[in-house]
Amino acid sequence: MTVIQDAGTSSLQRRLNNIIRGEGRICLIGLGIATISFQTGYDSVVTAGFQGMPGFLAVFGYKDPSSPLGYNLPTHVQTLIQSLMTMGSLVSSLFVFLIGSHISRKTALWVACVMCIVAVSVQIASTNLNALYIGRFLLGLSNGIFTHTPRYYIVKGNYEKAAYAIRRLRNITDEDLLREEVEQMKNAHAAEQEAKGKTHFFDIFKGVDLRRTLLLYGLACSQVVTGRGFLSQFSVYFLGQAGISDPFLWVMITYIISLTGNFVASFLVRYRPRKTLLIVGLTIMAVAMFVMAIPSTVQGTSVGAGRVLVAMYIIHTWVGNATTMPCAACLSAEIPSQRLRPEMVGTSSLVIWGTAWLIAYTTPYFINPEQLNWGAKYAWVWGASCTILAVWTWAFVPETMGRSLEQIDELFKKRVPARKFRTFQVETENIDEKYSRRKLEKHEGEVRSTSIVVEPVVEVKG
């Protein structure tokens, strides 16, 4: 007897189909929310471009025959244009931990969008510096106001809506598994509330939570203190002062090339250890900064130094998009304690925006010809910071790839060292792995049930 199985699609195709059917809705929602961050990046690029454009400089700056651009911005104007937006984000972040437990994420996003529209309208409608400053500050406020998820409904005690949200988000049809996940979230939240009754805000700096808080702060720095901030906010001006012809064109080329890094990141973060990617990314970015600084230090402004600067700028930006930024973002979302998440996320946002404000405020004093006029030598600072962050990541950052939030909680409570995070056997089962396993078993059962049995045909000769 010969058995012919309708194998259907290959193993890889089945896996992709499971992802699309089960997680496709989450991906689309995440993509939609991620586009909100587009305005931050867009604003950084546009503002950086304006600082190198004669039309903008003629209105808000002054003529400077000694400048390669023909114009220059007063240092205090350049400082305020960039730092006020960051200051607004810093101010709004102060309130995140106060409202994070009381307002839904969806409402916060709506408030942020309205404030952003008002801020942009003010900037577009005026050529007055004071109006420009107000618009920059309001735009920063909108950036800091973002914090309906299943866990949000669990916190509010609405378990039916939590189950509905899970079913809708992940397309789970197995009611038993759905109840298991809701129950697991309820138990985790109950344990958190029991502990939280005895906790206060400053508990983020105590016990096992201190470790998580410090990790968040370090990861916050890895998103800012790498040179990306000054390159994105002052790129056109920086390249123009370095003697690069068509600086805006080169900035646009850099962003187009680095965009491919974002697409690569979606695969790297899913299939490669995040800690390893973070270390490799920071190391390459450090080398790029050092190579950027050396020719300028040795030769000063020259054609050769300019070419090296542009090449390293492209490499630095691409690597940051492909590794450092997405990995730091993933780890920052997974590491906070669930019972102290608003406080941890709020204070880490303070670190991000506080550090970003300091960079935006001080950078003009380093690169503007009115002040220190360091030019590309400023890259020495960021090469050193990238090196320090790479060593810190290797020593202290744990690997969270493949772990659920409940499993990560267990690992921190048991004080598992960072180097053992990936291999340590936890007691909490990963609900995603269980669901995938059940779907695969169900699919294999369907394949077996559709097997075709072919009986051999025996020809009788008479």
TrEMBL record:
Regions that span the bilayer: 80-100, 107-125, 131-149, 214-236, 248-269, 276-298, 310-333, 345-367, 379-397
GO cellular component: membrane
Localization, UniProt: Membrane
Highest classification ranks of the organism: Eukaryota, Fungi, Dikarya, Ascomycota, Pezizomycotina
Main location: membrane
GO function term, MF aspect, one: carbohydrate:proton symporter activity
Domain of life: Eukaryota
Membrane topology: Multi-pass membrane protein
Pfam families (alphabetical): Sugar_tr (PF00083)
Xref: SUPFAM superfamilies: MFS general substrate transporter
Keywords: Membrane, Transmembrane, Transmembrane helix
Alphabetized InterPro entries for the sequence: MFS_sugar_transport-like, MFS_Sugar_Transporters, MFS_trans_sf
Protein name: Major facilitator superfamily (MFS) profile domain-containing protein
